Amino acid sequence: MSDLNETSVGKTLSTARKKKRLRYKKLSSELNIDESYLIALEENKFDLIPGGEAYVKGFLRAYAKKLDLNPDEIIENYLSERNNVIKSQIGYLDPINKERYTNANKYLAGLFFILISAFIYFIFIYEDGKKSNKKAVEIDQDLVHEESHEQLTEQNYSQNQIINPDIEKVVVAKEVDMQLSEKASSVIVEKDFSLAPEENITSIKVYDDCWLEVFTEDERLLYVLSKSGEEHIFNEKRLKIIAGNFKNIEISFNDKMISLEDYANKNNVSCIVLPDGDCSEFRTPNN
Q: Using CA atoms in the order 160, 162, 164, 166, what is the torsion angle rounded to 10 degrees?
């Protein structure tokens, strides 16, 4: 390992740049990285780099190569510094915070126990009670049916005795079972006749290295140094695409080829809004 561990990553980059007497503007143009991001790298302000750790590593690697530094050592030092910062932020709790943390855990544990107990009560006790009540109602209904049957039999017996007083054996009328007709229930099947949402497919094919930045009105979807052979596909209603070295890519919207040259500036950077619109009026999360 070289002397990189003796100083911060940002300081190492800044020292190397100053030795080569390189300006941010020239480096930004050659690397296709915004000047503000180069400054953020040298000041160890990695939170200002959009896209998270993957982009930070990518910028560090590209910047280190440009300054003739070992990119693997630069990234290793960056990860080490980041881990030290995380440990310093969350590795210590003062006694008061520890006590609050412990009390909060106790409170949550008690609340969890109460919820579990209520759930068990509902499942085993409440449901058993419902079943018992249902059985009781069924028994009561059976008793009512039996009493009605006995009353009807006694009534028929009495009537037969009155009508046939001389007959020694009384013929008891048989109970006729009545069957209830079942009503056929009709099932109406509802079909969803709603139309499928309109598809807006944007395809970006890369034939050589170029910087790509893709936005919706709510978020940045892509910000990367894209390599030859890559393809990026998006299904969004509206997109803003910024392409450096635009001649190295091919864009189609719903299988229709889009010309980027009409929207390019003298630095070979093209900006386009799909399906239509002006880049200056398209509001992104960063502006």
A: 130
